[in-house]
């Protein structure tokens, strides 16, 4: 069968290659190797541990997002989470989210659309928490004078995105509580557009919102909010541990700032594993604190490596223990 040319895939490869070229264009590779050999890898081991704690907490939050559907054991949620993140590292177009939903639905006998709807809410909580981290960082961390314009732009962008997320949450609340009125309002707003847009979007919104069955119990909501906080606390700590492994002691807000840049970087289309964009964002964030180029590149490589390779190994283990083939996972993600 003739394979079609995948424009998005090769565009991602090109973007990754461009940023990797930017990253290494002035780097002395002997100095880079020496810097990597001088790392205290005890801190890197802690960084890996904290990364997996963050994934475990994601499974905990997911449990409470789905608890109205069915009380699901963490023994099912955690492997599905790890497999999903492994797929994000190996497959293009962030198919890991679909894979994660597919694996859990297959294991627990749930409907895949309902599971995927919970992951949309999961990502909304992530986005909201990251924006809070960005705002807290920009209003407490003093960046160097030569980044004053960038700081102002990030602060304005952070406030704008925060308000946008608030609007999205209000919209979803109204869509859930006043479904028909909200759908009628959307249909009215879409009148200037071709009719086929509303004909496709309105049923999609209706199907999506019926798939969301969030618990209204105070304890469950508190568990979702608390786990969101701890997920990102344990996502910040690996950055801080890596810096300490290189003998660099910056305030925790510096690690928070770098993490936010990394989150923005993975939104840029790139090759699987976010190669290039991830490294360059980390490098630029570290350079803002006066860290030498060679050291910044070394740190970027280690931070990416601790988030990339361990989860792939763990993901393959959970695929094997669950009797799932990588090929079936890939096909499910592409089909979704």
UniProtKB/TrEMBL annotation:
It is found in: Cell membrane. GO terms for cellular component: plasma membrane. It is a multi-pass membrane protein. Keywords: Cell membrane, Membrane, Transmembrane, Transmembrane helix. The keyword Lipid metabolism does not apply. The chain crosses the membrane at residues 9-29, 41-60, 124-141, 153-176, 221-239, 246-268, 297-320. InterPro entries: L-PG_synthase/AglD (IPR022791). This is Flippase-like domain-containing protein.
């Amino acid at each position: 069968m003739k394979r079609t040319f995948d424009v998005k895939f090769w565009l991602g490869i090109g973007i990754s290659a461009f940023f990797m070229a930017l990253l290494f264009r002035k780097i002395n590779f002997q100095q880079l190797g020496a810097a990597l050999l001088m790392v205290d890898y005890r801190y890197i081991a802690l960084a890996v541990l904290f990364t997996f704690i963050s994934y475990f907490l994601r499974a905990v939050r997911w449990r409470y997002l789905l608890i109205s559907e069915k009380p699901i054991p963490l023994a099912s949620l955690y492997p599905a989470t790890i497999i999903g993140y492994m797929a994000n590292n190996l497959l293009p177009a962030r198919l890991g989210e679909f894979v994660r939903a597919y694996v859990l639905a297959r294991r627990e006998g749930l409907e895949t659309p309902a599971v995927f709807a919970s992951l949309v809410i999961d990502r909304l909580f992530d986005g909201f928490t990251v924006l809070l981290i960005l705002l807290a960082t920009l209003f407490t961390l003093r960046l160097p004078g030569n980044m004053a314009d960038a700081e102002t732009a990030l602060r304005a962008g952070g406030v704008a995105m925060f308000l946008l997320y608030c609007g999205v949450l209000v919209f979803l609340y109204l869509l859930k509580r006043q479904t028909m009125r909200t759908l009628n309002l959307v249909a009215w707003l879409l009148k200037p557009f071709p009719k086929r847009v509303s004909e496709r979007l309105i049923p999609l919104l209706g199907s999506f919102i019926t798939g969301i069955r969030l618990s209204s119990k105070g304890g469950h909501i508190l568990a979702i909010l608390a786990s969101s906080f701890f997920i990102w606390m344990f996502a910040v700590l690996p950055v801080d541990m890596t810096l300490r492994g290189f003998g660099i002691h910056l305030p925790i807000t510096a690690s928070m700032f770098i993490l936010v840049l990394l989150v923005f970087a993975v939104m840029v289309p790139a090759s699987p594993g976010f190669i290039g964009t991830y490294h360059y964002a980390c490098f630029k964030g570290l350079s803002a604190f006066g860290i030498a180029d060679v050291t910044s590149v070394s740190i970027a490589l280690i931070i990416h490596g601790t988030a990339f390779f361990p989860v792939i190994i763990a993901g393959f283990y959970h695929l094997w223990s669950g009797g799932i083939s990588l090929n079936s996972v890939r096909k499910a993600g592409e089909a979704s």
